[in-house]
Write a structure and sequence with these properties.
two-stranded antiparallel ribbon; 447 residues; 3 domains; mainly alpha
Length: 447
């Protein structure tokens, strides 16, 4: 098996504009353009009204998908920059490559990594998958020539694969190539570079059947190692590990900080979880600062930022240490899984507390239950509408759908995809409002 190399893995070629590809030397790098394009996009803005873990804010502002993505992007930029500095020291022959741009690529990919997630966090994904695997959608299996590959797309619906579709698919009336991002940014988003038939028990995969050829074109151009042809599977693009590490660092620590603000965790509990990342002498130094900074939330924020810095260093070391395996496609696990024993144990303890106290908190479970019900109801009605489009109620529902979604496509697979595109693009607030109106719980104002 031949390994991957940095010269081909880092490319400024843009998806959908391949015929106009040329080397550019401007003030704003091509990867910075990716970042800016994502920041200014409507799907990115909509992340501000999508659940991260806790319900959207009341009196206490906690993380939503937008603030989470921005923070992941900051951590990803630092990881990328630090890794680039280390690798350029090891490989001076790559000075003329795009290796120095890794920070920009990773930060852009981090911005986009959650853009395909439906409303209400992971319960939204589960609602879509189970609708087809064990709900009313199961009867569609025998209709409309749905192949195994296409059916797997629905029964294992995955936000990561949906992000790749959102960024590359040409929606009705939109331009070819979707967001027209660089090949390297797009490849860095795909955590599971294989088709849905390989999703397994965890329901993880990287692209739908409709985007398989798009991903194949990108991966082959970048020289990503292909592991098998049918079903399609590749080794990860190396920068995926940095995007994943940035996400792992942020969600774990920010969930703790939010839980402290919401008083799910006490100040002492939270401090202990964060201090345990450090050896005793560093812990003592960190505690000394509490004599200067007396605000409890600021103390937690200071500890959190210290842990972020520590984990960035640990993940950078892990990446550089395992560079050869990562390029060979033989590296196993995550970068977080290869850090030093002390922070690894502290991270494990944080994950355990999050599972026991945060993700099982009543408000978190309530939003998941409500979200599951809302998404399932909307799915049932919209799928029935595209299966029987001539019915009066179906026409009324279909008329609500934006023209960019190909709701009138000839094939059933494409019509179901249009419904999922529509639903997954909704904010929590929009989905709830539509659900209430359809159920007759909310009516438009009549003047």
């Amino acid at each position: 098996m031949s390994g991957m190399n940095w010269q081909t893995l880092l490319s400024t070629k843009r998806f959908g504009l391949e015929e106009f590809h040329s080397e550019r030397h401007e003030n704003r790098s091509e990867f910075q353009r990716d970042y800016d394009r994502l920041i200014f996009s409507a799907p990115f803005r909509r992340l501000q009204n999508k659940t991260q873990v806790f319900p959207l804010p009341g009196s206490v502002f906690v993380h939503n998908r937008l603030t989470h993505s921005l923070e992941v992007s900051c951590v990803g930029r630092s990881l990328g920059n630090d890794v680039a500095k280390e690798l350029l020291g090891r490989h001076p022959e790559l000075q003329s490559s795009y290796l120095s741009e890794i920070g920009s690529i990773v930060s852009a990919a981090c911005l986009a990594h959650d853009m395909g997630n439906p409303p209400f966090g992971h319960s939204g994904e589960q609602a879509i998958s189970t609708f087809f695997s064990e709900g009313k959608g199961e009867q569609l299996r025998t209709r409309g020539g749905l192949t195994d590959a296409r059916w797997n797309d629905f029964t294992h619906f995955e936000g990561n694969a949906n992000a790749f579709r959102l960024l590359t698919h040409q929606f009705v009336g939109r331009r070819k190539g979707g967001f027209v991002l660089t090949y390297s940014t797009l490849a860095s988003i795909v955590k599971y570079p294989y088709s849905s038939s390989l999703a397994g028990k965890k329901s993880k995969f990287g692209f739908f059947a409709s985007e398989q050829e798009s991903f194949r074109r990108i991966a082959d151009e970048l020289g990503m190692t292909r592991l098998n042809d049918a079903p399609l599977k590749y080794a990860r693009h190396p920068l995926v590990y940095l995007v994943e590490a940035a996400d792992d660092i942020c969600y774990q620590l920010m969930d703790l900080e939010d839980a402290h603000k919401l008083r799910i965790l006490t100040t002492d509990e939270t401090k202990r979880l964060l201090l345990d990342y450090f050896p005793p002498e560093r812990q003592a130094h960190l505690c000394d600062t509490f004599e200067i900074v007396r605000d409890l939330n600021e103390q937690i924020a200071y500890l959190r930022s210290s842990v972020v810095g520590l984990l960035i260093g640990e993940c950078t070391d892990a990446f550089v240490r395992h560079e050869a395996e990562i390029l060979a496609g033989s590296f196993e696990g995550t970068l977080i899984g290869h850090i030093s024993p002390r922070p690894a144990e502290a991270y494990r303890r944080c994950a355990q507390v999050a599972k026991e106290k945060i993700y099982r908190a009543r408000d978190v479970l309530d939003i998941e239950l409500a979200g599951y019900r809302i998404i399932t109801t909307l799915l049932e009605l919209m799928i029935e509408a595209v299966c029987y489009p001539d019915r009066l109620y179906s026409r009324q529902l279909i008329n609500r759908v934006s023209e960019q979604y190909d709701i009138h496509a000839a094939g059933l697979y494409e019509r179901i995809q249009a419904v999922l595109d529509y639903l997954s693009g909704m904010t929590d607030v929009f989905a709830l409002d539509l659900y209430r109106k359809i159920n007759g719980n909310s009516l438009p104002q009549i003047s």
